[in-house]
Amino acid sequence: MGSDANKVAVVTGGASGIGEASARRLALDGYAIAVVDINAEQAEAVTAKLSNSVDARNYACDVSDTEALHDTADAIEADLGPVEVLVTSAGLLENSSTVMDMDVAAHDHLWKVNYYGTLHTCRAFAGPMMKRGRGAICTIGSIMSTAPSPLPAYTPSKTAILRLTQILAVELGRHGIRVNSVGPTYVMTPAIQARIDAGERDPEVFKESSALKILVKPQDVADVIAFLCSEQARVITGVHMPVDAGWTVATPYQAYAGGMPWDRTTTGTP
Description:
This protein is of the alpha/beta class and 270 residues long. 44% of the residues lie in helices and 15% in strands. The protein has 9 helices and 7 strands. A 7-stranded parallel beta sheet has the order 3-2-1-4-5-6-7, sandwiched between helices. Helix 1 crosses helix 8 (218-228) and helix 4 runs parallel beside helix 5 (154-173).
């Protein structure tokens, strides 16, 4: 049975990628960890490693199942104690398509996981946080939260998560709960690596589209999540923090039709 002595962090989608990295990072901060994932076997493998240093448990749950989410939230509080931190990392990717050509069933399923999963996860865990008057939530947005792309399900779902985060920051702030979001670029998760291996993504394009010309790793995102959920960020809420190696600034800059100044062989006015 958990107790108030535990600092408890819940990570949905915690069996791999950014979620797994977040679980590992928050464990370093001394949190008891609840890994919530539809992949029970993989989640168990993650918590088995974390259990060497903290109380870590895994919970099989599909975040698109609202009733199961609330049951899982109740079980975690009973097992580990009051939840202080929630990271909503469960989500799906898609390959490029047009709105007219997209698979509508796949679109709807992605929204059930990405947006509705985030919405109902926040509702399930924020209720007890409100009663205690404390807590920190970090949602997983995207660089695509603020820009269009040929991902007709993914991009709108991440935009919706950004607006949801901002709304929750205001509504829950009066209860002592902070709600922020991270906006990762292309991150070298197993899901992205699988697409690279299948020839559907090019890591060199990832690098060249950023200002720093480097690849972003799940741990890079996890470090920012840990900060946003920490006491050091106690006055930060409602922000969307890009974790993108400068993709957000490099994309419009590098689209300038006059070419890059460092590519010129002669001097002149842009």
